């Protein structure tokens, strides 16, 4: 009977193990769902909407196939649509029933994404010029745009593993002129679980062991229960054995005999080990997590700190990775421009006061070999990223960048601005942080900060008034009406400007001729102020102040000679003047302005001062 039960156990084990293995092999469903989209290839760009990418849960894999170069990038859907606003493109969308389709979208006569009121009125009135501009498609190379969060390039085919939310989309193109890839394959991983494979394999292995055990018992019982043997033939009469005779087989059982029995026993044990090893192998074959039922109770979520985004606040202009890439590209471009003295190249990544000072510096370095270059813009590491929370244009981001090549150099603070979706970010203000500067608390980079209006009354001083107020402090010192509003104790720029005034006045007095006079005046610069809110209700404000000095003769017979001032001589093109010289130095300044009613003072965070222009007084 034991043999019967053993056979039954073997059969049951075979069925259970076979069923478990079959669930993991022949009966296992597909691991991905794939959808192929074929476009007509009539446009240079294809937009895959985020709703298509998130039609199924999980990561997405996008494969694009075309002739020649293949370009792909992803970013916020609103940004991609803004970039495509002036050209025709193929749009892949999904309807309410989940069906994917593609169609060609033509340029719309809407105004530029800056969303200005005047442009909106022109569009509403049906401005003919706006309509004619929109009707024309524009071919531009999408590679390298600052709008993309990440971009990819390939030849003939390109595969991108992604995991994007429905607020982001993918742009496909070639070079902006040739048709975009026409064959697109989207795939998503499918959750393939076989929760009974593991239990079946393990249970079958246990039954198999039980069957083996029963089989061994059956054999043992069979041997012990055999009946008496038949009587054999008569044995011969035994004779004495002569133990003294050597070399003769005396019939003594030698030590080798038990070894043969041990050999047999070892083979039996080996026979029993083989099924155990096989069962163990089968056991581990079903140990992956998706081969077992999910019997774990749902975990209680752990409370985490939540960042509250103000209601109605728009998305940050850039992500942290995006800002790091932009800063790196700005640094590389300006390094090349500095080496070549190329103001045109510098203009591709600089604007405003930052560009003006470098244009002057390039002019001086071309004429005066020993004239020092401006400090380089460091590429990394980017320590602080404070993007403007704004969906339109122009949009800006404030960054603080350490200099990993020289830790003794003060960090650089920059304000970068993108004028429209098709432009690169340009550094409009560039300065060095003052020693031991304590920056105010700012919002996380993934939240961003709103731009404080130039005429805001919520700050202790409106951004529009800040440059003029600081210029008044430079001009009048403690007699300025704004003196008490500024923290002047650690203001190195203020002290430096005053020391320069004193030195130049003293140098002129030492001539003893009393034929010339010098006058100093600081005024608000021509660059627009820009302010981003901080967490305390204040703002970081970037402004431009110009320091002017005028040297002119005090009588009609005197002339002013430029003996020790090669910079002014180069910029004016003359060595002397009977009317005098007017020189302007540009200050790029970053301040922390506290909220209205705060007891804090306005603090200078960083500055950069350099000569801007010089001219002969008419």
Tell me what you see in this structure.
Strands 9, 10, 11, 12, 13, 14, 15, 18 and 19 form a 9-stranded antiparallel beta sheet that branches. The protein folds into 3 domains: 1-29 and 192-221 and 275-292, no CATH class; 32-119 and 134-186; 320-616, no CATH class. The chain is an alpha+beta fold and 618 residues long. The radius of gyration is 42 Å and the shape is elongated. Helix 1 packs antiparallel against helix 6 and helix 6 (197-224) runs antiparallel to helix 7. It has 13 helices and 19 strands. It has helices at 2-24, 50-53, 77-83, 117-124, 128-135, 197-224, 256-285, 320-340, 343-346, 352-367, 463-476, 492-510, 566-572; strands spanning 32-38, 45-48, 60-76, 89-94, 100-105, 150-162, 168-173, 183-189, 382-387, 395-401, 412-418, 426-433, 516-524, 530-533, 539-553, 560-561, 576-577, 581-593, 603-616. Pfam families: DUF8094. The chain crosses the membrane at residues 196-219, 270-292. InterPro entries: DUF8094. This is Glycosyl transferase. Residues 103-118, 126-137 have a biased composition (Low complexity).
